[in-house]
Design brief:
39% helix; 5-stranded antiparallel β-sheet; single chain
Length: 430
């Protein structure tokens, strides 16, 4: 007897055909799960080694007040991040409000008037458009400061167009950037091997050009990080992968010392930099979240693989495929209608431990061009390492599934999303 399926049928009223479909999909991806488990174990021991080498102690969990001078916990946490990502230095702060903020202080901290920024993976994530100046006027964007921008579209197979990058680079080019994760695009995440090839290519063209990677959603999906393969600086969010579901807020930047020096002066102000800034008693959660991150990320990415296979069996277009190498935790599904997108998100919300009774609706979310619907019944608001789904309400109506602090919860999200679509007669199961 399958006790779990019996509970799901009786307690959660899941249609038996949905459970059968997901069970079959799970059996189909056993080999992918085995490979992901090995990557998880590697990263778990890598992080344990960094904790031990850095002699992290109970004293590093304490409070500081005022300006935050001599915060031993903050200094140790940033040293730990630098060691894990194999960089000279890092900034890890609860006052970095999200991944967009981490990326913005990186761009605004390094680039100067007259410099040129090139995105090598097509357009950036929606919230960065106003940071760069693609949208909005007079808000302190790169464009406002006289920094020019180009983008090089990906090749039809989703890889970086290296010749296009070569042609785009000019004497003004100061920084080239890769967005590792899918964002709201219909493409596979950029793999570490692709990042290595791109970084080497740019270095051979001009070693003085700074190579930056938006690492959001990508941490611990491989045994290497972008900074292991020639990238100068990376940035990300603590309420995604590296916070392990425990960090209440925050972001990080890790990279070359001279670059971190510039970024810290944008983070606070010239002359102060990283010497000030309280951690508000959050270092214990940030340390512990990093320690748990490989296991949490593993559950999330396995859930995304399962989601992809289940919807593939239902006949939907998906990206990436279950057998593809994963470089972020996101699974995109082309549902084809706004009704299906909203219903999918309703199913994810109904699977949540928090606010499961709330119905997600599309709204004009700050920083986005289209209305966006988001399902995220999380312990930490907006935490996309927890089970969540979101989508811009625009054709061709793709939805983006990610997260799950445990694989079992991510799997339940898949089950509830399919069950919601079935009960609204938006899908059929053969």
């Amino acid at each position: 007897m399958n006790y779990t399926n019996q509970l799901l049928k009786e307690q959660f009223k899941i249609d038996p055909s949905v459970l059968n479909l997901v069970t079959e999909a799970e059996a189909d991806v056993t080999e992918q799960f085995r490979k992901l488990d090995d990557i998880m174990a590697y990263n778990q021991y890598k992080i344990l080694d960094a904790f031990q080498k850095n002699r992290v102690a109970d004293m590093h969990f304490g409070w500081n007040t005022g300006y935050g001078y001599d915060d031993a916990g903050r200094a140790k946490l940033e040293q730990l991040y630098a060691d894990i990502f194999h960089t000279d230095a890092a900034l890890v702060r609860p006052t970095i409000v999200n991944g967009t903020h981490a990326l913005a202080i990186t761009l605004l901290g390094i680039l100067r008037p007259g410099d040129e920024l090139i995105y090598c993976t097509g357009g950036p994530y929606d919230t960065l458009e106003e940071v760069i100046g693609i949208r909005g006027e007079g808000n302190g964007s790169l464009k406002d400061y006289g920094i020019t921008y180009k983008q090089v579209e990906l090749l039809p197979d989703g890889s970086i167009d290296l010749e296009g990058v070569r042609n785009a680079i000019s004497e003004k080019t100061r920084m080239v950037t890769v967005q590792r994760a899918t964002g709201y695009g219909w493409r596979k995440a950029i793999t570490i091997d692709q990042i290595r090839q791109w970084a080497q290519f740019v270095t051979e063209l001009n070693p003085n050009i700074i190579k930056m990677v938006d690492n959001c959603y990508g941490e611990f999906l491989d045994i290497e990080e972008p900074t292991d393969v020639g990238v100068n600086v990376i940035a990300g969010s603590l309420i995604k992968n590296p916070g392990g579901g425990l960090a209440l807020t925050g972001g990080y930047v890790a990279g070359r010392q001279d670059l971190i020096d510039k970024i810290q002066y944008r983070m606070t102000c010239p002359g102060i930099g990283g010497e000030c800034g309280l951690t508000f008693g959050q270092t214990r959660a940030m340390f512990q979240g990093m320690f748990l991150a490989p296991k949490v990320v593993n559950g999330a990415v396995k859930g995304s693989v399962l989601c992809g296979r289940a919807y593939e069996k239902l006949g939907y277009e998906i990206c990436p495929k279950p057998e593809d190498t994963r470089s972020d935790i996101i699974q995109a599904i082309r549902l084809g209608s706004p009704e299906a997108v909203v219903t999918f998100c309703e199913g994810i919300q109904a699977a949540a431990p928090i606010d499961a009774h709330v119905a997600p609706v599309p709204w004009d979310m700050p920083g986005y061009e289209s209305q966006v619907v988001m399902a995220a019944g999380a312990f930490v608001q907006g935490s996309s390492i927890e089970l969540s789904a979101d989508a811009p309400i625009r054709p061709p109506y793709n939805v983006y599934f990610q997260g799950g602090l445990t694989y079992e919860h991510s799997k339940f999200g898949v089950i509830k999303s399919i069950d919601a679509l079935l009960k609204k007669n938006l899908i059929t199961i053969k």
